Amino acid sequence: xxxxxxxxxxxxxxxxxxxxxxxxxxxxxxxxxxxxxxxxxxxxxxxxxxxxxxxxxxxxxxxxxxxxxxxxxxxxxxxxxxxxxxxxxxxxxxxxxxxxxxxxxxxxxxxxxxxxxxxxxxxxxxxxxxxxxxxxxxxxxxxxxxxxxxxxxxxxxxxxxxxxxxxxxxxxxxxxxxxxxxxxxxxxxxxxxxxxxxxxxxxxxxxxxxxxxxxxxxxxxxxxxxxxxxxxxxxxxxxxxxxxxxxxxxxxxxxxxxxxxxxxxxxxxxxxxxxxxxxxxxxxxxxxxxxxxxxxxxxxxxxxxxxxxxxx
Length: 312
Prior knowledge:
Elements: E1 4-5, E2 25-30, E3 36-42, E4 49-53, H1 64-70, E5 75-79, E6 89-90, H2 95-109, E7 116-121, H3 123-130, H4 135-140, E8 141-147, H5 167-177, H6 188-198, H7 205-216, H8 220-231, H9 236-239, E9 246-251, H10 259-268, E10 272-278, H11 285-288, H12 290-311
Parallel strand pairs: 4-5, 4-7, 7-8, 8-9, 9-10
Antiparallel strand pairs: 1-6, 2-3, 3-5
Helix pairs in contact: 1-12, 2-3, 6-7
Domain AB hydrolase-1: 50-294
Protein name: Alpha/beta hydrolase
Keywords: Hydrolase
C-alpha cells in the first residue's frame, strides 16, 4: 500500500472572477491504488456534464472562471490531482496513475454510459492522453479539449531557459523545473518570475495574482515528484488512440509547452476538430483567456453531448 501525506489547505484568491465558487457537493473518489481524490460538483444535476482536469502545481481553483461561467447550465466536475489541492500526496506518481485517477473520478460522478466533455490543462491534458485507451474514458468522453499541453520532449523543447536548443539548455531547464527549493510566499518578485515562466507578457495583474496564489500553494514534495514524471513523459503513441473529437488550444507565448507541442498533437489526433493558437497568451490559457476556453468547451458540449443525448 502506498504511503500518503495529509494535503495542505489549497491556496487561491478569495474575491473576483478567479475566486473558486462553493460547490454544490463534494465527494472522494478512490483510485486503483487506494489514493483518495478530492472531487467537486458544481451546477444543476441532470445538466450536460463537463469534467475538468488541472495541471502541475495547480488545483480545482485553477478552473474558477470556467466553473462560474459553465455551472449556470452545465454540471461541472473538477478534482484535485493526487498531491495537489485537497488530494493527499502519494509515493505513486506516473502517467498511469493519472489515468487511474481520471477513471475513478468519472466512475464516481457520471452515470454508466453518460457522456461528457473532458477538458485538461497542461498535466491535465496529459492525463486525458494517458487515459486514451482506458475503458472509462471511452465510455464517458463525448469530446475532449486539450489546453497548453504536450505528450513528450517537455524539457528539451521548453523555452523557459533563454538559450539555443541543446544539451545545456535541456540540463538547465530540468534543474529549474525540477528544483526542490520552496516557492515561499507570493511576493512581487515571485509574481514576475511566475509571469515570465508561465504567462504571456501582457497577462493582467489579477490573473498573475490568481495563478501565483495557486502555484505557490502547491507543496514542495508533490511539485518535485511530478516534475520528474513530466521530464520523462512519452505518450505520443497514446495521442493516436484518443479517438473522440478533440480540440486543441495553445498560447503562442507559452514557454512551458510551446505551440510546437499543440501542432504535433493536432496532427496526430485521429479526430482533431480544431487547433486554436492564442496570440500573446502563455501557458495558463484557462486563466489568461478564460472566455475563449469556456466557449470552446460550450461548443463541444453543444456539438457532441447534445447529439449523444438526442440519439439516446
